[in-house]
Write a structure and sequence with these properties.
Layout: H1 2-31, H2 36-58, H3 66-99
Helix pairs in contact: 1-2, 1-3, 2-3
Length: 100
């Protein structure tokens, strides 16, 4: 029982950070709507995170090790957002050049 409480706390904490990453990524996708490639990669990360989240909720008490995989997915999403910010201008120019 104690283990489940600790895992639940871990889950709630991760959901806060994941929500921030999702909102940030959605804003980036809208702001850089021309750079469609960014939205595609971000969508992949979000889908991966959602699948892990569902599995994590279902097997929360049976398999706490999923918390580790969920953390990896969240950090990957955050790193992707940071990388998107740092490279947004160059990627946007590439996408614009490709479309024209």
């Amino acid at each position: 029982m104690c283990c489940c409480v600790l895992v639940l706390c871990c889950s709630l904490c991760l959901h806060v950070w994941y929500s921030i990453a999702v909102c940030f990524g959605v804003v980036l996708c809208v702001w850089h709507s021309v750079a469609v490639c960014l939205c595609v990669w971000y969508s992949v990360a979000v889908c991966l995170g959602v699948v892990l989240c569902v599995c994590y909720r279902v097997y929360m008490c049976l398999c706490p090790v999923l918390c580790v995989w969920y953390s990896i997915a969240v950090y990957f999403g955050v790193a992707l957002c940071v990388g998107t910010v740092s490279r947004s201008s160059s990627v946007k120019q590439e996408c614009v050049g490709t479309e024209s």
